[in-house]
Amino acid sequence: MAAPATSFDPHYHTLTPNAALADHVFESLIDRTPDSRPVPGTAESWKAIDDLTWELKLRRGVTWHNGEPFTAEDVVNTLARVPKVANSPGSYAIYTRSITRVEVVDPHTVRLHTDKVHPLLPTDLTQVAVIWRGLGDEVSTSDFNGGKAAMGTGPYRLERYDHGTRAMFVRNDAYWGGRPTWERVDYRMIPSNGARVAALRAGDVDMIDSVPTQDVAGLEKESGLHISRANSLRSILMRYDMREQTPYVTGPNGEKLEKNPFLDRRVREALSIAINRKGIADRVMSGAANPTGQMMPEGTFGYAPDVAPPPYDPARAKRLLAEAGFPDGLQITLLAPNNRYVNDSIIAQTIGQMWARIGVKPVVDTMPSSVFFSRTAQQDNSIALSGWANSVGEPSAGMRGQFATRDRSKGWGSVNHTLYSNKEFDALLTRALETVDDEKREALFQQMSKLIAEDFAYIPLHHQVNLWALRDTLQHTPRADEMTRAMDVKPRG
């Protein structure tokens, strides 16, 4: 794996590497297909029995790794714990906040009562791993990282976890879904692109994810290897700090500014249209990216056909900066990870060069993802390159987490560390989340996409193309959510 997980706690951080790692051991009530459609998981069926109640029938014959039966009490314990996880940089409460009460009908039937009509609850539940009731709802993240609490119902048992570097799994022969393919799984985290490719070529590993785009052609030609691809649901983007004062933006010569320039829409537009998205997709990403102006890729639920990528127009960008009172430009520090997204540090450096052409003096500060996420969670940045995986195949989670005004009671703005706030957006989101009709709800999501695009609330860049490289003796089912899991790999027949 290219990206290290930040925890083995399945409720600690809404991060794809964490979810992929945990998926080997833990399961959700509702699972997802490779193209992110909901299907039965440890719940075999679900239905709305009235506007405020969902009933789920739990699968019989499911056991925890300690032999205990899976029951409705496990669901109660899980949903009680999710909002309590301490120091979470991205809370899973965004997926559970609408639930006001959990009713146990019998050991295999549970009813979830919501505060309002919530047609997307089954989709939300695909993101929430269920933990054993015996752990209690106060179990600590350190207990998961230490292995003490890392016990689920999934196809593999955790044998060993070296935080940030490696996990070892062994087959769960009692798995309800049938005997898993592999007896043992060695799950390594190798952030260095060169080291990861070298490990594959040397035979030290059988498969790698996040294949460096510049290595794809060579690996495809190499005997004994092949490439697996899937268009990704992940959007790569940049977020502006929207506080009154921001720490890493100054005048062109380092002079302190009286007010955060990102609060001026003209400045936000200037920085966005100074970026040549097609150039990044073609040259930096070697074609393994699709330029975008919105969160959702084409063909998905909520995609807005009339929201195009912002046009590359450096001349207009210069004029906008001058109109905003910065004819001599600005000095801006761009924060970015160097081991989380495909070519993340190179993309950041490239954007810095593009900004320099409009008079912005860039300082590009790249760092390991563990440091990056800590800094963004603490709002220790002014503008940052990051991403959002719309893993559920529709935009509600991203809209709630990234752009909704922070409101802990609703679970909104859980990763809105920029403090962006737009009342019109919030009103549309409220309507969308309560709209049962799919066509009407999609139209509302499209309106929201257009609204934040026109407000230049953020800088959308592109959607990634997921790339894996593996031995010819193996076959792989690629996932749009970009998760890399042993369950998706089989011996080639």
Low-confidence stretches: none
Basic shape: globular
Residue fraction in strands: 15-25%
Structural class: alpha+beta
Largest sheet entry? 8 strands, mixed
Helix content range: 25-40%
The overall strand count is 21
Count of helical segments? 14
Instruction: Please tell me the overall pLDDT.
Output: 95
Key terms for this structure?
493 residues; eight-stranded mixed sheet; four-stranded antiparallel sheet
Describe the structure.
The protein has 493 residues and is α+β, with helices and mostly antiparallel strands. It has helices at residues 16-22, 72-81, 121-125, 141-145, 193-202, 216-221, 265-273, 277-284, 314-323, 344-356, 369-377, 396-403, 423-433, 438-454; strands at residues 27-28, 30-32, 38-40, 43-50, 53-58, 99-106, 109-114, 129-130, 156-162, 166-171, 184-188, 207-209, 225-240, 249-250, 289-291, 331-337, 361-367, 383-389, 458-471, 474-476, 489-491. Strands 12, 13, 14, 15, 16, 17, 18 and 19 form an 8-stranded mixed beta sheet that branches. Strand 9 and strand 10 (166-171) form a beta hairpin. The chain is globular, with a radius of gyration of 23 Å. The mean pLDDT is 95.
Helices and strands, with pairings:
Elements: H1 16-22, E1 27-28, E2 30-32, E3 38-40, E4 43-50, E5 53-58, H2 72-81, E6 99-106, E7 109-114, H3 121-125, E8 129-130, H4 141-145, E9 156-162, E10 166-171, E11 184-188, H5 193-202, E12 207-209, H6 216-221, E13 225-240, E14 249-250, H7 265-273, H8 277-284, E15 289-291, H9 314-323, E16 331-337, H10 344-356, E17 361-367, H11 369-377, E18 383-389, H12 396-403, H13 423-433, H14 438-454, E19 458-471, E20 474-476, E21 489-491
Parallel strand pairs: 16-17, 16-18
Antiparallel strand pairs: 1-8, 2-3, 4-5, 5-7, 6-7, 9-10, 10-11, 12-19, 13-18, 13-19, 14-16, 15-19, 20-21
Helix pairs in contact: 7-9, 12-13, 13-14
